[in-house]
Amino acid sequence: MGGRLTRVFRTFNVESRARREISKEKPTPAPRHWPPRGDAAADSPEIKEEIVRKDDRLLTLLKDVYVESRDPPVRVKDGGGEHLPCKQEEKRLTKLGHLGALDVKKVSKGKISIVEALTLLNNHKLHPQMWTAEKIAAEYSLELKDVTSLLEFFIPFTVQEFPKETKKAIKS
């Protein structure tokens, strides 16, 4: 409710406010400061002398500075056990279809690959009596509730080709 009210006030009389801002006289920018020519500053003898002169007080302070750096102690890692997984997952070979080269070869139990998901959805769509949720769950090592929700909420696309007469009728 508050958004609608603020939008009304924001859009009230927008055109006339925009014209008024556009018609205002533009402020003149401040004049730019041009630095002196570079060669004029370099020709100055005071600047050349300041560049060449060494400050003895600063040199003695610099000599008193002593920097000592040490690397942190190196810890030896024990056997590289960090890279091993905590628990060993059971893997199963995938049911490869005609897209076998594009699909993964091993999948954890309780999961399916993209090609398998498309295959089981298409099989269920074509033969729902033969490919029931229970059979799919047993075939792909999945839980029944996951398979029922998968079959309920995911539907594969269907490709339909229209006859040539219909195409002509649509274009004209």
From TrEMBL:
Q: Name one Pfam family in it.
A: UPF0240
Domain of life according to the entry? Eukaryota
Protein name, entry field:
NADH dehydrogenase [ubiquinone] 1 alpha subcomplex assembly factor 4
Its taxonomic path starts at: Eukaryota, Metazoa, Chordata, Craniata, Vertebrata
Q: Which family does it belong to?
A: Belongs to the NDUFAF4 family.
| InterPro entries xref list | NDUFAF4 (IPR009622)
The cellular component terms of Gene Ontology attached to this UniProt record, alphabetical and capped at eight, are: mitochondrion
Return the annotated region ranges for Disordered: 17-45
What subunit structure does UniProt give?
Answer: Binds calmodulin. Interacts with NDUFAF3.
Name the gene.
Ndufaf4
Question: Could you give a single Gene Ontology term from the biological process aspect?
Answer: mitochondrial respiratory chain complex I assembly
Question: Where along the chain is composition biased (Basic and acidic residues)?
Answer: 17-27
